[in-house]
Every structure is written in structure tokens, then in C-alpha cells.
Amino acid sequence: NAGVMQNPRHLVRRRGQEARLRCSPMKGHSHVYWYRQLPEEGLKFMVYLQKENIIDESGMPKERFSAEFPKEGPSILRIQQVVRGDSAAYFCASSTGRTSGSADTQYFGPGTRLTVL
Amino acid sequence: DQQVKQNSPSLSVQEGRISILNCDYTNSMFDYFLWYKKYPAEGPTFLISISSIKDKNEDGRFTVFLNKSAKHLSLHIVPSQPGDSAVYFCSCGGSNYKLTFGKGTLLTVNP
Fold first, then answer.
1. 3-state secondary structure chain B
2. Nearest CA in chain A to B50
């Protein structure tokens, strides 16, 4: 029973490059969430997606960041023209969608640690 | 503006004793509360949750208490075990799916 899978686990990029982070939700889960954790901070919500739909992207920076969850394949968080301040751990979570609101328990993946040189 | 506060960055307890982790929130729209445990270099693991219609939820050694009027919740672990040593995050949510997390408390259980 595989949990939420994220890859790569570690990603190093130079300033100005693009970063692509992938997330495969747990089997049977149709809702995906992305969170970012800066050093010494809690996780901060970025975006909530269902298949082919962005439901809430209120936590996403307005520029350079985008997310998708296509009909087939993993969810992708894309960061264009990375800067040093993008260095963080990015966590994906998934839920079944069978319960409404925050009672729909989110299960997290192991995270991708992005380092921007 | 921090909506979820875990005022103790760290806590150290002896094996077998009780660990009490505290969390305060400010947003009265929060109606669902979860605790996650996180080991270094891993993702958060769901531990236990509570709805605002309850004041207590228990699962084995873990109990979460909610005081809605004080906007305060706590996680009790008894008896504490060395394997419980981790960072514990309090998170709060409402009718949307967005969770707001505290900064975490590092629990160390000494053998």
C-alpha cells in the first residue's frame, strides 16, 4: 500500500533554472495539496488541486510558480527562474475527498528538498 | 501574523512520563484540528485529529484535548517512549481544505 510519493527527494538548481517537483498521491486519493517549509518554520499551504483542476492557489507566489494535476500522471509543481529564496522543503499531501473540508485527512509525502545555488 | 502558535520550540521528558504539547490559535473559523509528527528528512505523519464539536479524542497513548473558548489544544502522550522523539506540528483547518500549521515543537524523550 504505497503512500504519497515525491521525486526527486533532493534537487539542486542554479539561479535562473527551472525546478520540477513531482507528486503521486496515495491510491484512491483524488485531492492533492502542496506545502512549503522554510527552515525553522511550519508548513505553509501553497495550492490545492483535483484532477485537471486548480481549486485553491491562494498560497502560491503570483509569479514563477505553477502547479498542475493532469488526468494521467503525477501532480507537478513547477518553479521557473529559481532564486535562492526558493530553497526549501516542498511537501505534497493527498486525501480521498470523501469528507468535506479539513476533516478530509491529508497524508504527506517525504518531501523534495530544493537547494538553489 | 501567526494564526497557529506552538510557543514551546522544544520539550524534554523522561521515558515513561507524560509529554504535553500545547498549541494556541486565533482564527475562530477553524473547526478541525490535527497533530502531525515529523522525523528529520521525512514528511509529516498524521497522528490524531479532533473536530470542534468534541473536547477530547483518544487513540492509544495519544490524546488530544480541545478548549474552544480558549482557542487552545494540547496533545498528551503517555507513557512517552524514546521513539516518540520528533517534531510535532499542530495544524488547524476550516471548511476549506487548507491547513495552517504551527512552527512545531521538538520533543525529546530520554531513556
1. CCCEECCCCEEEEECCCCEEEEEEECCCCCCEEEEEEECCCCCCEEEEEEECCCCEEEECCEEEEEECCCCEEEEEECCCCHHHCEEEEEEEECCCCCEEECCCEEEEEEC
2. A103
Place of cell 538548481: A13
Mean pLDDT of B56-70: 97
Round to whole Å and give the CA distance between A41 and B102.
8
pLDDT score of A101 more than 90 = no
Under an 8 A CB cutoff, do A55 and B45 touch? Answer: no
Contact call for B96 and A105, based on CB within 8 A: no
Say if the Cβ atoms of A102 and B94 lie within 8 Å. Answer: yes
DSSP letter, residue A27: T
Residues of B in contact with A100 (CB under 8 A): 95
- Give the nearest partner residue to A33 out of B92, B97, B100, using CB atoms: B97
From chain B residues 1-40, the ones with a CB under 8 A of any chain A CB are 4, 31-32, 34, 36
Is the CB of B44 less than 8 angstroms away from the CB of A33? no
Question: What does the pLDDT read at residue A100?
Answer: 80
Rounded to the nearest integer, the mean pLDDT of chain B is: 95
**In the predicted model, is pLDDT for residue A1 greater than 60?**
no
